[in-house]
Amino acid sequence: MAKVKRVTAPEQQKVVVTMTELILQTIDRSRADISKWWNSLQRAEQISYPNRTNLYDLYERIILDGHLTGIMDKRVKSVKNKKLHYKVNGNSVKELDDLIKSIKFREFIELLFEKKSHGLVGFEFTIGTGFDYQVIPRKHIKPEAKIIATEQNGWTGTSYEGVWNVMVLEDIKRFGFLLRCCPYAILKSGSLSDLAQYIELYGQPIRVGKYDAADVETKKELKRALKEAGASLSITIPSQAQIEIIGDNVTNGNGEVHKVMFNTCNNEMSIVVLGNTETTSNDNGGSNAKSKEHGKQQKEIHKDDIAEMANILSSDAFKVILQSYGYPVAPGDGGSFVFEMDIDLDELKTKSEIWSVVSAKVPVADDDWYTTFNIPKPANYDAMRKKMDEEKAAQQQPAPAPTPTRKPKPKVNNQAFEEFEELEDDEPIVKRVKGAARAFLQRFGFFE
Question: What ranges do the domains of the chain cover?
Answer without folding.
Answer: 3-180+302-318, 184-285, 345-399, 406-448
